[in-house]
């Protein structure tokens, strides 16, 4: 049987052998929710970069530049890290460069994988259907918060493990831990997450609207996939067999 | 209110500020269960060391030497990592040097704390009563398995969070995650843990007896505490106020 594993923090990803595997990177609040939203709204490509300097350099080269640090948009950039920023009609066909506190790091640290895809609740069933179809082992890579584990990404990982239950073996204890967490939370996920530390940080920043949006299931059917160093909408030719 | 935090792996402990805090190190299967058992059976001191070479050097200097790697006793050492090894009458008053795959690393990485104490289910209530009495913030430091999170240490952390519920705030999301896990597992903890990856490793090694023993609550009332670089039985003068 195929295996599913969960990495709760980018600071632990070096312990995982990603070779030949499909990695689902998740940063529910809010990087991967933004990426899913942007690609669904016709953005051509999204290039994740580690530093503000790299992001600014790409801005000079014509990219739309998105930068967030500690939950806030950085001055001088075009977009922040709200999914509503990514719905703008003017972004259709554009190339975006993005740097965020956690999510972009999780992506760049996943590059040894056979394929890196972007997960969020917004494209949940699309991800699950794809994972059911392929033959590869899977690692859900949670972006966390500055290296620490967080509630929302752990819950997402648990939801993925739950949806694939019976079809994949746990590769270590982390999938079982997040699965158990999800089973406890799924009836009242909003309440459960509203007490999380990052939700509290976001509430302080008055972005409750983002928070509720990022918890919606299945708004979109697309999967952003990493091609070279850009995320693009997965097409038929990108699908593993 | 005081804060409780949980670090799920020694590979994440650098993210935690341990200064002024009490750290409970836990490696249920089996290092901290062994340490609790040994100190309760009259062992004078236990010195955790990182390498087999250091452990052997101390053996030459007269220490009783205990060494485990990948779940097995290492040839040439006096003791392995079974709690039953630590019940021997002949160990009374002796000094032990110990090196294990995970537990000793978690201890040596906790040394910035105000105080490091050794937790296990075997001395659960003693630990909880002590933590209730002091004024310090608390970090439960799970030894995990080679850097990855594991079930049994996460469950122990969840049990500690549960026992202190209402008296301490969560410092981040990890305490809430393990608390939720524990609430799901506590009715059938043995079943829950028997499916864990480390339990499976131990079962392969025919040490089911150790596994059942390490899940017993409150066999002992003592708390091993780190004094300099040795663990010793906590006395009244060691108690923080």
CATH class of chain A: Alpha Beta
Roughly how many Å apart are the termini of chain A? 16 Å
Secondary-structure element pattern of chain A, one letter each: EEHEHEEEHEHEHEHHHHEE
- The rounded Rg of chain A comes to 16 Å
In CATH, the topology of chain A is named putative 2-phosphosulfolactate phosphatase
Structural domain count of chain A: 1
Q: Number of DSSP helices of chain A?
A: 9
Broad shape of chain A: globular
What is the mean pLDDT of chain A? 93
Oligomer: homodimer
CATH architecture verdict of chain A: Alpha-Beta Complex
Strand-helix topology:
Two copies of one chain form a homodimer.
Chain A: E1 2-7, E2 22-26, H1 31-40, E3 45-48, H2 52-60, E4 64-69, E5 72-73, E6 95-99, H3 103-108, E7 115-119, H4 124-133, E8 138-142, H5 151-163, E9 168-170, H6 173-185, H7 189-194, H8 197-204, H9 208-214, E10 224-227, E11 230-233
Parallel strand pairs in A: 1-8, 1-9, 2-7, 2-8, 3-6, 4-6
Antiparallel strand pairs in A: 4-5, 10-11
Helix pairs in contact in A: 5-6
Written description of the protein model:
The structure is a homodimer of 241-residue chains. In chain A, a hairpin with a 2-residue loop joins strand 10 (224-227) and strand 11 (230-233). In chain A, strands 7-2-8-1-9 form a 5-stranded parallel β-sheet. The first copy, chain A, has a 4-stranded mixed β-sheet with strand order 3-6-4-5. Chain A has a two-stranded antiparallel sheet with strand order 10-11. Chain A has helices at 31-40, 52-60, 103-108, 124-133, 151-163, 173-185, 189-194, 197-204, 208-214, and strands at 2-7, 22-26, 45-48, 64-69, 72-73, 95-99, 115-119, 138-142, 168-170, 224-227, 230-233. The two termini of chain A are 16 Å apart. Chain A has 241 residues and is α/β, with parallel strands linked by helices. The first copy, chain A, contains 9 helices and 11 strands. Chain A is globular. Chain A has one domain (2-229): Alpha-Beta Complex (putative 2-phosphosulfolactate phosphatase), CATH 3.90.1560.10. In chain A, 56% of the residues are buried. In chain A, helix 5 (151-163) packs across helix 6 (173-185). Chain A binds chain B through residues 8-9, 11-12, 15, 145-151, 154, 170, 172-174, 176-177, 180-181, 183-185, 195-198, and chain B through 8-9, 11-12, 15, 145-151, 154, 170, 172-174, 176-177, 180-181, 183-185, 195-198.
């Amino acid at each position: 049987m195929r295996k599913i594993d969960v990495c709760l923090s980018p600071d632990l990803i070096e312990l995982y052998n990603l070779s030949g595997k499909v990695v689902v990177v998740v940063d529910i609040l809010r990087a991967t929710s933004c990426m899913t939203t942007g690609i669904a709204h016709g953005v051509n490509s999204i290039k994740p970069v580690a530093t503000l300097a790299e992001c600014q350099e790409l801005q000079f080269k014509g990219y739309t530049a998105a930068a967030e640090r500690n939950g806030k948009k950085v001055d001088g950039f075009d977009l922040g890290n709200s999914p509503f920023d990514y719905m703008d009609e003017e972004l259709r066909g554009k190339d975006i460069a993005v740097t965020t506190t956690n999510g972009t790091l999780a992506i760049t640290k996943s590059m040894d994988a056979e394929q890196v895809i972007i997960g969020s609740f917004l494209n949940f069933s699309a991800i699950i259907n794809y994972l059911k179809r392929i033959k590869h082992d899977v690692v859900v890579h949670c972006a966390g918060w500055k290296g620490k584990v967080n509630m929302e990404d752990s819950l997402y990982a648990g939801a993925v493990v739950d949806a694939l239950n019976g079809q994949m073996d746990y590769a270590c204890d982390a999938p079982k831990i997040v699965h158990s967490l999800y089973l406890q939370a799924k009836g009242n996920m909003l309440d459960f997450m509203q007490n999380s530390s990052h939700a509290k940080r976001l509430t302080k920043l008055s972005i409750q609207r983002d928070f509720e949006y990022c918890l919606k299931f299945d708004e979109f059917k697309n999967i952003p996939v990493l091609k070279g160093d850009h995320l693009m909408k997965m097409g038929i030719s990108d699908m593993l067999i």
